[in-house]
Amino acid sequence: MDLWLILYVIIAYVIWLAIERCMRENEGDTDSGKEGGTGDESPGGGGKGDSGGDDTVDGGDGSSGGESEGSEEDTGDGVSEDDGEDHHSGNPWEKNLLKNNCGQDNFQYWKIMMNGGDGWSVEGVPIGVNPLPKTEEGNDNPDFGKNTGCFATGGDMCLKEQLIDLLEEGFTESELDSQPLIQISEWYACHPEKLGDYVLNVTLLSKEKRNMGHSSFYEDFSTLPRKEWHKVSKTFSEYGSGLRYVSFNHGGKSREKLPGHYGCRISGGVIKLVRTSEL
Predict the structure, then answer these.
(1) What's the whole-model pTM score?
(2) Inside any domain, residue 124
(3) d(Cα 238, Cα 243) in Å, to the nearest integer?
């Protein structure tokens, strides 16, 4: 009888060791699966209505050409030439701080915040609207450089953001605390047969990401020629010392929420800092 009890204890002990080993292996697999998680995305939103102040809106005359050919389908990656600007050059006062402003690098440098409908798309040549406008002399517009493409929005709200770290761009704290002018602009258009919305939000931020100045622009194309390109401009001044970042948030949608990319077209965004002594 004692022999059977001893065998029973030995068998129970071996089973317990096997169960404990399996549990340890499962815990190791669980811990390894937790690594490499994605970070949280900051919330975004579109402001409706012109913020006033130094905002200006220019209408493009579309003199650079008629409606481009092609379907309303997503063009995929899109192909565009280099914009010719060195975004990491030594002098930050002489460059557009907004990177990949025409979709020439797809969505590099941008943080997608909303991707409604069929989502964001890049068009190597704008579809359904005029080509990107030239200067009055017929030369390449410096807002676009050699690029020919644009971003296109889907049937529901699409938003994306680019956060510019001004110290990383080469400005010093003393230069930023001198409150240089901050010039913002961007071009937008809409399909001639479909209603669309365009929104641009720009926020000046301190080191602690405190709001030092904000501008919102919204256009529903109810009074503008939709096929043509239009330009919105804003200049920030006297915003106080402590500026370290600029948040550039733009997007739009198709009012009729149609499949495909019948929303607004966006291209040629610009952020430039200008010394007040240069005016």
Answers:
(1) 0.71
(2) yes
(3) 11
